[in-house]
Amino acid sequence: MSTSESDGTWFDETDWEIGEDGGFDANVEDSGPPPVVAVVGRPNVGKSTLVNRILGRREAVVQDLPGVTRDRVSYDALWTGRHFVVQDTGGWEPDAKGLQQLVAEQAAVAMRTADAVILVVDTVVGATAGDEAAAKILRRSGKPVFLAANKVDSERAEADAAALWSLGLGEPFTVSALHGRGVADLLDEVVAKLPEVAEVSAGSGGPRRVALVGKPNVGKSSLLNRLAGDERSVVHDVAGTTVDPVDSLIEMDGKIWRFVDTAGLRRKVGQASGHEFYASVRTHGAIDAAEVVIVLVDSSQPLTEQDQRVISMVVEAGRAVVLAYNKWDLVDEDRRYLLDKEIDRDMARLAWAPRVNISAKTGRAVQKLVPALETSLASWDTRISTGQLNSWLKEVVAATPPPARSGRAPRILFATQATARPPTFVLFSTGFLEAGYRRFLERRLRETFGFEGSPIRINVRVREKRGAKRTR
Questions:
Q1: 176-224: per-residue pLDDT in tens?
Q2: CA dihedral (129, 134, 137, 138) positive or negative
């Protein structure tokens, strides 16, 4: 029997099954992290399309414009039973300037750090000076390098691929990333040459997954680079530089964390178009896959509706939360006074989240993020025994019983914690509990058991009226 709170029927606990709570549990092999395959090449040669073909699903943002991918972005992949990480990169050009130069540097980092590299070349265009420069670097790397001659959509086009032998990377693999032609043969060869684990060990145990979210240009990529100690993400003073979520394994205080830098969230997904729309969808997915979320707020500017929307989305997703007020180096005494007022007014419902005042630019107080993350995750993982919970509930209800409704006060018969991550409680009662009383119970739960940094969910199951027919 499964019934809802609103239909006034009894919920039989013995028939109740808890579904997935949305938490992210990574399957981490004891032997170490999986090897990394970097997909590199000039802009618009089909790298992201090939990544999606390897994954068997649409993950990398693809649009018929050069330069959509800007960072190096990691995805978990599986082929013939072998797990590995495929890393999409921005277009690499040896003479790039400005923002494109930063993008090219990310691709160069991927070439250096990956366990194997797939160089994608547009067969229709043929080998360019940029392709030759990339091939020269890769020949010196000592890593397994595979030349993917892309856009070979038919047998007639295979003859054009023969000219790519000139790059000195061996026989080209003729593929069509768009249609899947030849990709399986390429992957067979790649997997055969991969090491069992990545060259750079990520340490033992599964790293906790942290998402960095916030409105555009709030400093997410700058914070990621500060924590990593190198340029993991492209940083530019143009808002919206990050398009894809970017995974980075970072060691802090002797512990490995998996950070995901995400695109800045606009007010509504409907306001974005093209690759910006898909980037927003990816950011939502990154939040759902995370365990704890660092919400970055620009402390030098007044709190906005966008900040509120971002926070609401994270709380609704049920993730642990840390509030990081960035750009603290720009906050003077007057702004600090106004910010405290804004927080009291607009962030009262998130008073349970740890707050850290940081500056990604100067490094101020970023070391305080680790204790805040650990506090929030500990709360998120917390379970309270049924006996302890009901003893607490009995005292609370005796002191402050639920308000009467239609002349009769409901009785709470029993309580249990259904799941952790986030902590979710189910109350079995004889009548509906008002939203205000639920908020009261949440406050008392926090006062007694903590839960700092974690949202709490309270569900109510109402007993059916005496003599009512039981339904299944």
A1: 998 999 999 999 999 999 987 665 433 334 688 899 998 888 998 889 8
A2: negative
CB-based contacts of 176: which residues, under 8 Å, 6+ apart?
Answer: 150, 151, 152, 153, 182, 183
Nearest to 217 by CA among 264, 273, 266, 281: 264
| Whether residue 422 has a cis bond before it, omega within 30° of 0 | yes
Q: What is the DSSP letter of 400?
A: S
Between CA 359 and CA 222 the distance in angstroms is 9
C-alpha distances out from residue 220 to 314, 366, 385, 425, Å: 16, 13, 38, 33
Which residue reads 């994608």 in tokens?
120
Q: CB neighbours (10 Å) of residue 282?
A: 21
The pLDDT of residue 158: 84
Q: Are 413 and 428 in contact (CB under 8 A)?
A: yes
Strands 255-261 and 292-298 turn out to be: unpaired
E strand or H helix that includes residue 108: helix 98-113
Closest CA to 456 of 468, 470, 445, 467: 445
Residues of the chain with pLDDT under 70: 1-33, 59-73, 91-113, 197-206, 230-247, 261, 263-283, 285, 464-472
Q: What is the C-alpha separation between 395 and 448, in angstroms, rounded?
A: 12
